[in-house]
Amino acid sequence: SNSVYSLLVDRDGLIWIGFYQLGLDYSLYQSGLFSTYSYLPYFDSKDMPVRSIAITEHEKLVGSRDGLFYINEEQRRFKNFKSPELRSSMIFCIYKFQDKYYIGTYGGGMYIFNPADLTIHDFEPNEPQPFMRGQIFSIKADNKDQLWIGTSMGLYCYKDGKRIKQYTSANSKLPEGNVYEIYFDSTHKGWICTENGMCIWDPSSESLKTDIFPENFIHKEKIRVVYEDSDHNLYFLPDKGSMCISDLSMSRFRRLQPDTQLEGKDGMFILEDEEKWLWIGTNNGLYRYDKKETFIPYNFIDGIPSSIFTLCPPVQDQQGNIWMGNSKGLIYMNFKQNNQMKRYTYPLTITDIYVNGKKSLHPVVESGKVPEIQLESSQNNLTFHFSGFTYTEPAYMTYEYKLEGEDEDWQILTGKSEITYYDLSSGNYLFKLRYIGNPDSEVRTAVHIAYPVETWSIIAVSIALAFIGYIYYQRKRKAKQTKNIQIQLPEDVQEPEKQEKTVELKYKTNKISTEECQRLTEKLEALMHRDKPYTNPDLKIADLATMLGRSAHTLSYLFNQHLNRNYYDYINDYRIEEFKRLINEDEYSKYTLGALAELCGFSSRASFFRYFKKATGITPNEYIRSIGKNNDE
Fold first, then answer.
1. Looking at the structure, do residues 468 and 385 belong to the same domain, yes or no?
2. Measured between alpha carbons, how far is residue 1 from residues 16, 19, 147 in Å?
3. Which residues contact residue 222 at a Cβ distance below 8 angstroms, ignoring those fewer than 6 apart?
4. Cα–Cα 20 to 30 A to 402, which of 79, 226, 346, 427?
5. Percentage helix, strand, coil, to 5, in the chain?
6. Quick one: 386 exposed, middle or buried, by C-beta within 10 A (0-12, 13-18, 19+)?
7. What residues contact 450, with CB distance under 8 A and at least 6 apart?
8. In CATH, what number is assigned to the domain containing residue 422?
9. Range of the domain at 23
10. What is the mean pLDDT of the chain?
11. Burial of 557 (0-12, 13-18, 19+ CB in 10 A)
């Protein structure tokens, strides 16, 4: 409507527009943490897909689908190269080496740019493929000032402008396909990543190797990015799938734990900042990762124009600015301002609590440090309404919440400002809410749901009956034990052992020698490994005894007197080991935990979880994460 009746610009710079009978509009809030680079009137990267950059103290080189841009603000110099001056305007990589910039293109080969006179010329004019018409994906230098080039025709190495070696899949261990990434780590090893896998340049033997990777490593996948942090951990971003983390020797490696904010996203780049956190750009968002469990998302609210980042290696300059390539521009932020600007202007607030679908008439009592609401037993459906008073696009607002007493882990909520729980049991709960990755923003509300009156009566009667039953049972048990001992002892024994164990009496007439027990144990273990009878959920001790050609009583004696454990624990231990074996095999990676439990012989998912926790001290999901695996459940 054109009927604007009121206009307000608030202290955050938002514009509020009131219309006649048509409500209220407002402009979307952005913090200004990130900015899109421009050097007007010559250059503006807004809406430009930036594919490669090189940033020095005074110079900037920006590669995009629209050519190459050189900016020197100190000397007020600017230059743009594109078709027809370039055979291809799609710039894939830029690398500064010995005061010159080496430029790789898609379909136009490779160039050398001289910033002294702003000229550009061919790198290898006598080599049509790949340096005149091919694809150049990666350019890096090693510690010996040798220039390595990843191309569509293999891997090249140059020294002082002369070619030393060309590696292909035909003359070396280089896997087939385009060479997408070259990375030299702190031990000077070169990680070479191609369309069909990875190999390592070994500087000691000056050769490419593929036979040094451990089993289940990521070397058979298409890797787009390799990065080493200050703790000398390597990070591998595959074209598809989760990130892999390894030490330099590959003796310890794992996949990123499941159920993180990176799940389902393709990694584009990694950069470590001064606080040893990692910035990870993806095809759907930017995240800051503490290398443990915390991921802080950055999006439109922070000034990022698009959630899509490109395969552009980021750069941190001498002033602390971090530069990143985005599908809608070259963006940058000053890391030193990050912690200050990521703080929210207004505190997160729980504005309302709805009970059974209606606004609560019960007051929230501020009796202590945590506000509390007292509810009746029937009032067990709760909806928490909240606001951060940040007026922006709701889809970009992300929170974490947890109801202690109901939720085991923190839950993630995006684009909504209410959370509902149904059919809560009587008891005490603590509701927690915070901006994701920001523990200081946490707000809390305690909830007490009363027990029904009849419940207290039932509890009191149950306790009394249980106590009476316990006293009766203890007296009967002692009387029975005394009677059994008197029956079993010979009459001529003058000083009988009055406290002989019940279990010893049970097996008194069926003792087996230690040697026979050992032979039977070996026979039992051979049967378990060979035939895996434990995978039958209905397996009984009598069934096992039949397989061994012994009586059930003899086998019971073996378990209780020789192995000192019961039959069910013995069988379940084999089932747990079978689960650990299956979870390490790729063909079972898509099975649910319930299905895997059945394959191992457990009768139910609940019994599997219960015994696994009893035997190992951790849950199945925790075990899967500890070995770097993933599971869909």
1. no
2. 14, 7, 62
3. 180, 193, 194, 195, 196, 197, 238, 239, 240
4. 346
5. 25, 35, 45
6. buried
7. 374, 375, 376, 377, 426
8. 2.60.40.10
9. 1-30
10. 88
11. buried
Among 256, 286, 316, which residue terminates a domain?
256
Strands (E), 168-293: 179-184, 190-194, 197-202, 207-209, 223-228, 233-238, 244-247, 253-255, 267-272, 278-282, 285-289
Of 510, 514, 363, 329, whose CA–CA distance to 445 is shortest? 363
**486 and 518: one domain?**
no
Rounded Cα–Cα distance for residues 603 and 479 (Å): 38
Under 8 Å between Cβ of 260 and 295: yes
Can you give the pLDDT at residue 143? 96
Quote the distance between the C-alpha of residue 243 and its chain's center.
Answer: 8
The pTM (predicted TM-score) of the whole model is: 0.65
pLDDT of residue 195: 96
- Residue 283 or 294, more confident: 283
End-to-end Cα distance, the chain: 50
pLDDT tier for residue 506 given thresholds of 50, 70 and 90: low
Please report the sign of the dihedral spanned by the C-alpha atoms of residue 256, residue 607, residue 544, residue 561. positive
Shared domain check, 494 and 392:
no
524 and 587 in a single domain? The answer is yes
What's the number of domains the chain is made of? 5
Based on the fold, state whether residues 381 and 487 are members of the same structural domain.
no
Return the pLDDT at 486.
47
- Asked whether residue 318 is assigned to any structural domain, the reply reads no
Q: What is the CATH number of the domain that holds 613?
A: 1.10.10.60
Instruction: Dump pLDDT digits (tens) for 137-179.
Output: 999 999 999 999 999 999 999 999 999 999 999 999 999 999 9
The residue among 359 and 391 whose pLDDT is bigger is 359
Which of 214, 236, 256 lies at the terminal end of a domain, its last residue? 256
CATH code (residue 167) = 2.130.10.10
> CA 232, CA 102: separation in Å to the nearest integer?
28
